[in-house]
TrEMBL record:
One of its GO terms (molecular function) is galactinol-sucrose galactosyltransferase activity. It comes from Corymbia citriodora subsp. variegata. It catalyses: alpha-D-galactosyl-(1->3)-1D-myo-inositol + sucrose = raffinose + myo-inositol. It comes from the Eukaryota. Its EC number is 2.4.1.82. It is an enzyme of class 2 (transferase). Belongs to the glycosyl hydrolases 36 family. The keyword Transferase applies. Keywords: Carbohydrate metabolism, Glycosyltransferase, Transferase. This is galactinol--sucrose galactosyltransferase. Transglycosidase operating by a ping-pong reaction mechanism. Involved in the synthesis of raffinose, a major soluble carbohydrate in seeds, roots and tubers. The keyword Chaperone does not apply.
């Protein structure tokens, strides 16, 4: 088919099904496109009218087409428009191209195929699909030529509230994806073909390949990222015959559209981690509705040990119980810096109860969903609290929070729980002092209907939600949060976030309702909780990521920690534990660009407690337990928590290693989950046998290599230029391994076993003796702590000496190829051991605090 360059005219715009435009505004605004498309005034189009522009494009043309259409409609419960290519047609090369900046893209559409660097990605692309190269670049950077990404859109003949458009066939390409398996939780899925995809997929990464390619001509990694467009939200799902389907929906029959210009973004690159980060930077500039994690500050609780009341009390939490819980942890040497008062402190009632009756003390797990918020103040257990100091101490929640912080000096932060809509069942209509609300019957989207059945969802759907209309939600959060701030609460855990998408019909659709709620929540958090005093939970959907993260910088990245089988089977204690690790590790690939990953609480006395503790120790997020009062494993907790209530956190957030990206550590029967992270001066790898979710009784082997760590990642990369040897310390087997950069070693793990490997670049030091050769040295850290390398705050090399600043206490180790003559601790000579090429020094908790940061100064050398 002949291709010519055509100037974009009003007639062509109208025939494209775009908005009616004035002749003098034939640019990005006219197209309802983002600002970066302003230079895109030329379009490559077929001289002959492209088939998808014809008015009757989807009329009955052949028996075969009708068969495909009917089969497609049967594939969904609530049929929407199913857009499939006719078997005999090919797509035209319909690609917009900016005149300035970006004139080409690595990703192209040619003869019905989407190619990346000339390699086939999607075949049999329908004629309705259009690609627009992205002209976005990071601030201060030059435009790439060709551009690494492009937006994908499509045009249809009918206005509908939802469209399902096939964008091409995916065959024989290994992919990693993130999909929602519950309304509010997502996880990993891998496959090779379009049929392997899951509904409600939020992100797809296609693996790279350089097989049979000349340098520079390899097939790159390719990311598919569904976006928001106007009042519509997109996701990916499987289509017929290996087609990849793009589902675009408003959620309201009153909000319709017939065409989309940027419902999906595709990005190509050679680094899978940079690929996701760069693509989401483009989405940030394109949408302008959120901020990247790197643009926001984290709440201080990230560096604190926390105790959550959830499992200790269920829904009957009360001040005396919290007091005793904190007291027990303090007396055990593991004082919490954060107390999270989970669900149970609010004033709620059942639907059938009078508005004068609080019902939470009668609620058990599963019964809270029909309850609605009765007042913004806490329930009577907290309102009736009286300070032991008498009248001077006051009463109520404010007095309790003040007493708690004053009695236990480690408690710097107290957070409380509330749902996005106030409570699980929203607000009680007609309750005094509350904004107007009405009970709305929730409705699941077709994609979510394919997800895992869940008791909470069923109960919410059955009982409805007392929804505050968008125009009043700002007032709701203002009153709620101003009260919490007035009683000394430092932040909130906002839960049940994706409830709003089920309530969309009469409020402009899911995107518009979400915008109203997230805008109001953001404004209130900025005013009352320093802008970042929030833990987001049950938020695993792109609606929230793209609309709710302007200020929120911390959020849960995994399903709940299930200490027992949720169905009550006493023999199923273990089966969900491996899932928890995998959820968090892989979800962080995507979510970590919006929010800092929180791996959720766990119980220190659980049979798999050490397994969970190890993962959280190197997760880079906060560490929180939900132990019952007085039921703690302090030996384990002291490997996580310092005496001041702080933790040894990593500098980055944990992610799967490259060799784990396109495999399934839960189901493939062979892969060990490996995650990596960075401390200030060391890297760390965690290896976990999660196979079979714990049911598989076989041991698994994996290889460890220094290159498993992305040394250049994060805000404080570690230079390994010129490093010829790495020192690796294995926390469980307590041994040292020396490896060249090209070398690997193998470990084997039984089910629910793990290994944490601290990896430290070895530096060659000039010996004080002129005749002696160089001495090799690498700090390891406090090996009594699970994140040993996290203790190292600074390393300074000078002739004959190494000075290491350490935070914490316990057994410090460092690799040294020769035994040093002398070691000093805070300027005083101390005894030390030298075993297995490691210097061993006992470090006590420092008596003098330097800038509120308890550190010790270790000097090792040859005077």
């Amino acid at each position: 088919m002949a291709i010519a360059q055509t100037i974009l005219t009003k007639d062509l715009v109208n025939e494209l099904g775009l908005i009616d435009a004035k002749p003098d505004k034939l640019r990005g605004e006219m197209l309802d496109l983002p600002a970066a498309f302003l230079p895109c005034t030329k379009i490559l189009a077929s001289v002959d009218r492209p088939p998808f522009l014809k008015t009757n494009r989807w009329s009955k043309e052949t028996t075969e087409e009708e068969r495909v259409r009917k089969a497609s409609e049967r594939s969904v419960k609530n049929p929407k428009e199913i857009i499939m290519p006719p078997r005999s047609s090919k797509a035209s090369s319909y690609v917009t191209s900016p005149v300035y900046g970006c004139s080409d893209s690595v990703i192209t559409l040619k003869e019905s195929n989407i190619l990346a660097n000339g390699h086939l990605i999607l075949s049999e692309v329908p004629p309705i699909v259009a690609l627009i190269p992205s002209a976005y670049v990071a601030s201060g950077e030059k435009a790439l030529e060709p551009a690494p990404g492009c937006f994908v859109g499509f045009n249809t003949a009918e206005h509908r509230s939802g469209h399902i458009a096939s964008i091409g066939k995916l065959r024989g390409l290994r992919f990693l994806s993130i999909f929602r398996f519950k309304v509010w939780w997502s996880t990993l899925w891998v496959g090779n073909n379009g049929r392997d995809l899951k509904h409600e997929t939020q992100m797809v990464i296609l693996n790279r390949s350089d097989e049979g390619c000349e340098p520079g001509l390899a097939r790159p990694y390719v990311l598919l990222l569904p976006l928001l467009e106007g009042s519509f939200r997109a996701s990916i799902q499987p289509g017929l015959d290996d087609f990849v389907d793009l589902c675009v929906e408003s959620g309201s029959t009153k909000v319709t559209s017939s065409g989309f210009r940027a419902a999906l973004y595709m990005h190509a690159g050679d680094d899978p981690f940079a690929l996701v980060k760069d693509a989401i930077k483009v989405a940030r500039d394109h949408l302008g509705t959120f901020k990247l994690l790197e643009e926001k500050s984290l709440p201080a609780i990230v560096d604190k040990f926390g105790w959550c009341t959830r499992d200790a009390f269920n829904y009957t939490v009360h001040p005396n119980g919290i007091w005793e819980g904190v007291k027990g942890l303090v007396e055990g040497g593991c004082p919490p810096g954060l107390v999270l008062i989970d669900d149970g402190s609010q004033s709620v009632c059942h639907n059938e109860d009078p508005v004068t009756k609080e019902a939470m003390n009668h609620a058990v797990a599963g019964e809270q969903m029909p309850c609605r918020l009765l007042k913004f103040q806490e329930n009577h257990d907290f309102r009736d609290y009286e300070s032991p100091r008498g009248e001077a101490g006051g009463k109520g929640m404010g007095a309790f929070v003040r007493d708690l912080k004053e009695e236990f000096g480690s408690v710097d932060y107290v957070y409380v729980w509330h749902a996005l809509c106030g409570y699980w069942g929203g607000l009680r209509p007609g309750a005094p002092g509350l904004p107007k609300s009405s009970v709305v019957k929730p409705k699941l989207s077709p994609g979510v209907e394919t997800a895992m059945e869940y008791l909470a969802v069923d109960k919410i759907v059955d009982n409805g939600v007392g929804l505050v209309p968008p125009e009043l939600v700002e007032w709701m959060y203002e009153v709620l949060h101003s009260h919490l701030e007035s009683v000394g609460i430092d932040g909130v855990k906002v839960d049940v976030i994706h409830l709003s998408e089920m309530l969309r019909e009469n409020y402009g659709g899911r995107v518009e309702l979400a915008k109203a709620y997230y805008k109001a929540l953001t404004a209130s958090v900025k005013k009352h909780f320093k802008g970042n005093g929030v833990i987001a939970s049950m938020e695993h959907c792109n609606d929230f990521m793209f609309l709710g993260t302007e200020a929120i910088s911390l959020g849960r990245v995994g399903d709940n920690f299930w200490w027992t089988d949720p169905s009550g089977d006493p023999n199923d204690t273990f089966w969900l534990q491996g899932c928890d690790m995998v959820h968090c590790a892989y979800n962080s690939l995507w979510m970590g660009n919006f929010i800092h990953p929180d791996w959720d609480m766990f119980q220190s006395t659980h049979p798999c407690a050490l397994f969970h503790a190890a993962a959280r120790a190197i997760s880079g997020g906060p560490i929180c337990v939900s132990d019952s009062v007085g039921e703690h494993d302090f030996e384990l907790l002291r490997r996580l928590v310092l005496p001041d209530g702080s933790i040894l956190g990593c500098e980055h957030y944990a992610l799967p290693t490259r060799d784990c990206l396109f495999v399934d550590p839960l189901r493939d029967g062979k892969t060990t989950l490996k995650i990596w992270n960075l401390n200030k001066h060391t890297g760390v790898i965690g290896a976990f046998n999660c196979q079979g979710r714990g049911w598989c009784g076989e041991s698994r082997a994996c290889t460890i290599n220094p290159s498993n760590i992305e040394w250049s990642a994060g805000g404080s990369p570690i230079s390994i230029d010129g490093v010829r040897v790495f020192a690796l310390y294995l926390s469980q087997s307590k041994r040292l391994v020396l490896l060249k950069p090209s070398e690997s070693f193998e470990i084997s793990l039984e089910p629910f076993q793990f290994e944490l490997i601290t990896i430290s670049p070895v530096k060659e030091l000039r010996s004080a003796a002129a005749s002696a050769g160089p001495v090799q040295f690498a700090p390891i850290g406090l090996v009594n702590m699970l994140n040993a390398g996290g203790a190292i705050q600074g390393v300074e090399y000078r002739e004959g000496w190494v000075e290491i600043t350490v935070r914490g206490w316990g057994e410090f180790r460092a690799f040294a190829s020769e035994k040093p003559r002398e070691c000093r601790l805070d300027g005083r000579r101390v005894g030390f051991e030298y075993e297995g090429q490691m210097v061993v020094i006992q470090v006590s908790w420092p008596r003098i605090l330097t800038g509120f940061n308890p550190v010790s100064r270790i000097e090792i050398g040859n005077p």
